[in-house]
């Protein structure tokens, strides 16, 4: 890349970067999108083979393009999602350069804008949008030593059951990734333990409507902050096998042994917190409260949606909940693999500006950084609960684009 100047540099060519590009193009703002790999690379290479979207095709998309090969209620595979974003980039003629990594962004001294270094040269940008999203650095808690015996890998490196050595598997994490991977492994014939932490457990569908619809009409996607104490609570929901409500009792009936949170390791034995029953109960309460709100909404609006009394029948707790495993000798239990479905951390080491707090988290309001000229996009709770979802990031990008246009107008005066 020869030395050039751009009005807006967008770093990242995934869903956030493409949403940003569309709104900037619509506003006539010159910009460039740099992506170090391929468009939507993480959907292709950092997801397991059988992954599908957790939301139906009518919901988990941008407004300007439908999934042409899916019915509205279907759940797109990871490859279909990646293909969708490639098609979207072509549709909006996004100025994306792939295979170019941004290595540093620093503010100019004595003049506006930023000096940007990349794997293909340098450029100057008046504004920079960090659209790399939240899935930058896989997080594996430092609990089990690398030389403890079992193969350890993050869920982003898991592909399929055949990838793992013969033997049992411990899956740590009760969010969407953890429960889907645990179920896939169990259905493949593996002995599986699943370590369950705090979680929300919405119904996949209720009274003829998907949970994405319910969260929309009940205003929950628009919540601006998570409930106190629930900042790190995961959502256990699945689009696998046509979509179904995650039911930990059903997972236990399938043969999965549930445990509490993974706390510590010593001399070949893992120790679990005594919180499994409480975590299951809290997930049940979240599930039932959404049913209550949905029923009230139906009554309030006089909707003719079918009754579903069976949805409230939870059944008895399995033995692994009433008499939980508190410690597990990995060798004696035949555990040869541990899959850590424990989330990600952001990595803004390339963004060398004063835009972060003492914990390294971006300081911003709705994506507008405290560092003038720098913007963030694609982060969880950036502006509301839906911010990290495909459709949510599109709306957040519109706000950021509007802010950039206002600042450009001031600068032209």
N-C termini distance: 31 Å
Task: Estimate percent helicity.
Answer: 25-40%
SS class: alpha/beta
Radius of gyration: 23 Å
Please tell me what the overall shape is.
globular
Tell me what you see in this structure.
With 413 residues, the protein is of the alpha/beta class. It has helices spanning 15-26, 41-45, 78-91, 176-187, 211-217, 248-253, 276-301, 319-322, 390-412; strands spanning 4-11, 31-35, 96-98, 102-107, 114-118, 121-130, 137-138, 151-154, 168-172, 192-195, 199-200, 205-206, 209-210, 234-235, 257-259, 262-266, 269-272, 327-329, 335-340, 344-345, 364-365, 368-369, 374-376. Strands 1, 2, 3, 4, 5, 6 and 23 form a 7-stranded mixed β-sheet that branches. It has a 5-stranded parallel β-sheet with strand order 8-19-9-10-15. Helix 4 links the parallel strand 9 (168-172) and strand 10 (192-195). Helix 1 (15-26) packs across helix 9. The chain is globular, with a radius of gyration of 23 Å.
Question: What characteristics describe this protein?
Answer:
413 residues, alpha/beta, seven-stranded mixed β-sheet, 9 helices, 23 strands, 26% helix, 22% strand, globular
